[in-house]
Every structure is written in C-alpha cells, then in structure tokens.
Amino acid sequence: MRVAAYVALLRENPAFARLYGAQLVTFAGEWFATVALLGLVLELSGSAAVASLVLVLQTGGFAAFAPLAGILADRLDRRRLLVAANLARAPLPLAFLLVGDADALWLAFAVIASLAAGAAMFEPTSSASLPNLVDPRRLPEANVLIGSAWGTMLAVGAALGGVVAATLGREAVFIVNAVAFAGSAWLIAGIRRPLQQPREDPHADHPGFGESITTAIAFARSRRLVGAFLLSKTTFGFGTGIVALLAVFGAEVFDGGDAGIGILFAARGLGALAGPFIARAIFGTADRGLLIGIGTSLVLLAVSYGVFPLAPAIWLAAILVFMAHCGGGAQWTLSTLGLQRATPDGLRGRVFSFDYTLVTLTIALSTLAAGFLADAFSPHLAVWAMVGLVVLAGSVWAVFARPLLLPAAAD
Length: 411
Hints:
Number of strands: 0
Number of domains: 1
CATH topology: Growth Hormone, Chain: A
CATH class: Mainly Alpha
C-alpha cells in the first residue's frame, strides 16, 4: 500500500498535514462523545428508538445545514469558515454534563443538533478545500489519508470512549470532546496555503439556498459520471440505520454496556480505516476503477451485515462489522476522489454540500426506521431490513452506473 508515499506527503506538505491532524482531532472527540451519548440515552430512556435519535439528529441536522455550507464554502474564505465551525462547537459538549435524567434529554438532543450544524459547515468545506492543498498527482493519497482519518479516530475514539465512560465516567468524555474542537481550530488556523482558487469576480456568483441545490443537481444531471459518484454515499446511506443498532447489540444483545458499544464502534472504525488503503491498492485511481471499487464495496457491506445478526459472540460480530465498514470506508473515499476531480473549484463546495445533504438525510431516515423496527420487532429483524434496503438501492445504482463500466466510458 506504499506507506512511504503517505508518510512523504505528510512530511513534505505542512498545510495538508495540519488539515489531516485537525480531522483526526475532530473525529476523535466526536466519536469519544457519541459512544457515551448512545449509552446515556439508552440508559435514561430504555428505548432503541429514542437512542437512535442521537444519530438521527447528527445526520438530520447535518442535512438541514449542508446546503448553506455549500454556499458559504464557495463564497467565503474556507480556512476561516473551518476555524469558525470548530470554535463554535467547542463549548457545546459541556452542556451534556447537565443531562442527569430522562427529563433533561431534550437538552442533549438540542446540543446534538447544534453540533451537527457545525459539522455541516466543516465537512463539505474540508472536502472542497483538499484539491487546493495538494498537487493533482497526490490527491488520491491525500483522500486515502483523510478518509482513513475518520476510521482511525472512530476506532480509537470509540474504543477509548467506551473505556473512559466505563471507568472515569461520561463527564470526562464530554470534556475531551470540547477540547478536541478547540485543538482542531488551532491547527487549521495555522494553514497558510489558500484553500480555494482566486475568483475573477467574488461578487458575481452569490446563489441563494435553493439555487445552491439546483445548481449541483443540474451539474450532476449533465454528467453521468458525476451523478454516479454523487449517488454512491447515498446508496450506502439507505442501510446505515444499522449503525444505531450497534449500540443495542453491544450494550444489550451481547450485554457489554458502554464497553460493548465501544467494541463494535471500534470495529467499524478499523474497517473504515483499512478500507481506503485496500481500495487504493486494488482498484487504482482511474474513474472506471473507482466505480468498480464502489460496486464491490456494496456487496461486501451487504453480505457482512446480512450475517451479523447471527453472530453468537461479540468478537465475531466485531469481525463482521469490520468487514462491512471496509466496504463503507472504501466507497466513501473512492466517491469523494471522483467528485473532487470531476468538479471545478468554484462549484465544488455546492456539489459536496449536496452530496453530504443527500447521504445524511438518507442516513437520518434509515436510522429512525431502524430504531422503530428494533423496538416493534427485534434488533435482528431491523438489521436484515436495512440490508434489504442497501441491496435494493445498490441494484438501482449499479444499473445507473453500468454504462460507465465499459472500458472506454469512464476513463
């Protein structure tokens, strides 16, 4: 997997190294807190559906604010926007310290939605900025590192978050989350390389909220390749209600409490960490290879989660979660690289905000459905229902992308 190339990129490009470090710190804090939040809400509510609202609000809040982020990312200084997003989030996790009983859960949910708004400003802006921090030939390696950052810190943050919550208490976890946002903002503030190309007339293109979405849709409709990459994450999103059920399986089905949640989420993170590196080595960086990699990732995720409810022990369940999210992490990185290369800088913020809006809205609805199915029937049946949705959505995506898989179509 040419580890030396990734190390060289970080050593030779301090600006990219700062953005990468900022992503690591941000993701670590977020997943540190998410494990504790899922455990807290499950404990206070006793309901899988209520616990699923943690992820519903994270993704739904993101979807609601992402179109605005696209407008701002194409109009404002992206470095300042990234710093402001994390500084605004820094004090918010401390409010979780006030949630001590079921009557105070509304406060936790309000804070989760506010944090999601900050994430909506941060993530699309970061993705749109990346091609301006590295040379085009190094963009694949940069995407692998950024994509694996999410998985790395999910693995580390989830595992440590579960352990710290179980030993030192959830309060310590929420304080770490607050500090992480502040540290990430400091790292980004030190980037001196421009995160966008100069605009000939910065006042000429000021789209409104609705126009931001319609511009991205029109661009994708005119280019099947862009549409295929744009729909990739959303296709996976139909089944990601399973992620909320990992908390139920870890804490209740396998009787592991917060530590059990941490184990399954850590396995998810390890898969998301390994997936981008494996996909880069196997499928390469040509557009056709990216599409084949996305299709292969869909199959891996569906098969792994199809078997997951049958796992007799948490260690085997963790292996299946790892395999599923090797596919999930791979497709995220592959589709992001494809979109970055296929979209001009002046439009990239809006296209990525639309990409994130689609996937987070789909994830929110999938998560809500998974929680209600788990309460009404069983967590096992809910997982299989989500797998069925992934298979259905994946089949539609494959039909749409099939013309591009001809040897001369995508390259």
